[in-house]
UniProtKB/TrEMBL annotation:
PROSITE patterns reported for this sequence: MSCL (PS01327)
Protein name in UniProt: Large-conductance mechanosensitive channel
Gene Ontology molecular function, alphabetical: mechanosensitive monoatomic ion channel activity
Localization per record: Cell inner membrane; Cell membrane
Keyword ATP-binding appears in the UniProt entry: no
Family: Belongs to the MscL family.
Originating gene: mscL
Coiled coil: none
Keyword Nuclease: no
Biological function: Channel that opens in response to stretch forces in the membrane lipid bilayer. May participate in the regulation of osmotic pressure changes within the cell.
Originating organism: Sphingobium chlorophenolicum L-1
GO CC terms in record: plasma membrane
Subunit structure: Homopentamer.
Length: 142
């Protein structure tokens, strides 16, 4: 029964529930960020650099398998067929997605740190009360 009660105590802590909420919100936020990257930012970047989809930029390293029926210029078709590729365009998309997510999290943490109250600095020396109590103590010793 000790293990079950310890587990129950662990689950009832506020930190576990906060973590669970954070993971769920983080997953939803990652979906929004992925859509921002895939649907808004990368098409503009792709348009500037001559293509609407960065995933089409890759270097095929392996041969096409026998009986390959997909498009040999499609990253998704080649990946599904198990062809070895250097998919730098897809990596670039994921990397931009990461940078956006990291920057937004940085801004959120910065905002939360501003909102949280800062602990007061401890006085450099002993307080007046401590000094007075020391004087009384020393007087009583005499």
């Amino acid at each position: 029964m000790g293990l079950i009660s310890e587990f129950k105590t662990f689950i009832n802590r506020g930190n576990v529930m906060d973590l669970a909420v954070g993971v769920i919100i983080g997953g939803a936020f990652a979906t929004i960020t992925k859509s921002l990257t895939d649907d808004l930012i990368m098409p503009v970047v792709g348009y500037i650099f001559g293509g609407a989809d960065f995933s089409r930029y890759f270097i095929r390293l392996g041969d096409l398998p026998a009986g390959f029926k997909g498009n040999p210029e499609s990253y998704a078709d080649l990946k599904a067929a198990g062809v070895a590729m250097f998919g730098w365009g897809e990596f670039l998309t994921v990397f931009v997605n990461f940078l956006i997510l990291a920057f937004v999290i940085f801004l959120l943490v910065k905002a939360v740190n501003r909102l949280m109250s800062k602990p007061e600095d401890a006085p450099a020396g002993p307080s007046e009360e401590v000094l007075l109590l020391r004087e009384i103590r020393d007087s009583l010793k005499k």
